[in-house]
């Protein structure tokens, strides 16, 4: 019996590990100072908005919702989510679900909140922000500034220049680029117009260049867009066009691994059971 418990525990641990895939890494979160009364109609409105976001994420990478005031709640609540452009609907919805659940803990009873995981962004507030360009720097991180070689610097600049290039006819909120080992990824929230997205990304990229100087990698998150680069593959999985396949491969591999470990554990349980039975037989004689 004890062995069987170990098997279950092991499987649970592995499932938890696989759930902590890189799309779930926490990037930043913030809440409005203003709080609502727990149990108030406002709370119901926020809950139904967040539920709408989770449901919508099962079929589209971006959506926005506006919940109109009801007779009992005078506040309108606005919300949006944006998944990274390369995520499948399945991974997008899991990411949004996780972001909403973390938002619920981080921004308990707050009138508004925003949270960015590696794979998705979620925001709600009773002050309208939909379609409003916002270039406030929210989070900046630079890697070790060990001094890129001039070659690496050139590749970095190429990657960033390409991210900034808008190919007018094919407007994209999600962009990736690569040159040698250098990778870049950029994403706008879907509520921006093409020109606003372009403007936001240009800003993020300029700041990234200026503030991360000769770092081997850098992240620049503005309120409505972000740009990231790395030299040497830190984001190669994220920015690679095949990343969907890679992620699916990893999930498959994990599933097989879980199966294998569970199988081996079962065999051990069975063998120990057999040996006990044998011992009993020996003891009986
Ligand atoms: C947002 O909600 C807070 C708390 O209920 C309220 O004080 C504030 O006036 C609301 N803002 C808007 C724009 O409705
Ligand atoms: C919000 O969503 C509606 C319905 O999907 C869409 O028509 C509208 O353009 C969106 N607004 C913004 C700012 O993205």
From TrEMBL:
Membrane topology: Single-pass type I membrane protein
Keywords annotated in UniProt: Cell junction, Cell membrane, Disulfide bond, Host-virus interaction, Membrane, Repeat, Signal, Transmembrane, Transmembrane helix, Transport
Keyword match Disulfide bond: yes
Record bears the keyword Transmembrane helix: yes
GO terms of biological process kind: defense response to bacterium
Membrane-spanning ranges: 254-275
Location(s), subcellular: Cell junction, Plasmodesma; Cell membrane
Chief localization: other
Classification via InterPro entries: Cell2Cell_Antifungal, GNK2, GNK2_sf
A Pfam entry, by short name: Stress-antifung
Signal sequence interval, chain numbering: 1-21
CDD domains (UniProt xref): Gnk2-like
Domain Gnk2-homologous intervals: 24-129, 134-234
Gene3D superfamilies from the UniProt entry: Gnk2 domain, C-X8-C-X2-C motif
One GO cellular component term: plasma membrane
Family designation: Belongs to the cysteine-rich repeat secretory protein family. Plasmodesmata-located proteins (PDLD) subfamily.
Subunit structure: (Microbial infection) Interacts with Grapevine fanleaf virus (GFLV) 2B-MP.
Protein name as annotated: Gnk2-homologous domain-containing protein
């Amino acid at each position: 019996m004890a062995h069987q418990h170990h098997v279950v525990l092991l499987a649970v641990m592995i499932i938890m590990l696989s759930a902590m895939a890189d799309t779930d890494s926490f990037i930043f979160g913030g809440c409005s100072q203003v709080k609502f009364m727990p149990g108030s109609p406002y709370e119901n409105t926020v809950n139904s908005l967040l539920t709408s976001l989770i449901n919508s994420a099962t079929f589209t990478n971006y959506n926005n919702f506006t919940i109109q005031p009801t007779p009992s709640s005078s506040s309108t609540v606005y919300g949006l989510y944006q998944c990274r452009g390369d995520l499948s609907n399945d991974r997008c919805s899991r990411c949004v679900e996780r972001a909403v659940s973390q938002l619920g803990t981080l921004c308990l009873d707050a009138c508004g909140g925003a949270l960015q995981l590696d794979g998705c962004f979620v925001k709600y507030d009773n002050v309208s922000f939909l379609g409003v360009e916002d270039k406030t720097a929210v989070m900046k991180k630079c890697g070790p500034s060990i001094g890129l070689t001039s070659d690496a610097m050139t590749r970095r600049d190429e990657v960033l220049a390409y991210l900034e290039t808008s190919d007018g006819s094919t407007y994209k909120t999600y962009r990736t680029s690569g040159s040698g080992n250098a990778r870049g990824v950029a994403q706008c929230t879907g509520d921006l117009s093409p020109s606003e997205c372009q403007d936001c990304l240009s800003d993020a990229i300029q700041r990234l260049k200026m503030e991360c100087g000769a770092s081997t990698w850098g992240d620049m998150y503005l309120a409505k867009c972000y740009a990231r680069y790395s030299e040497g593959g830190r984001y190669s999985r994220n920015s690679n066009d095949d990343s969907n396949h890679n992620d699916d491969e990893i999930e498959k591999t994990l599933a097989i691994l879980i199966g294998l470990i569970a199988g081996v554990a079962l065999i051990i349980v069975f063998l120990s059971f057999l040996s006990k039975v044998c011992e009993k037989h020996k003891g009986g004689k």
